# Entry
Amino acid sequence: DEEDHVLMQKKQSKNMKRKTRQGKALEKRAARSFMDVLQE
# Structure
C-alpha cells in the first residue's frame, strides 16, 4: 500500500514540474500530507 502511495507521489511530482506556481503549491501540500502519513 505504502509503495503504491510513493509511486503516486513520484508521478504527481513529475506532472507538477511541468506546471509553475500552482504546481509548486500542490507539491508542497502533497509533501506535507506525505510526511503526515509517515509520522502516523
Observations:
- The chain has two helices and no strands.
- The two ends are 14 Å apart (CA to CA).
- Residues 2-39 form one domain.
- The chain has a mean pLDDT of 78.
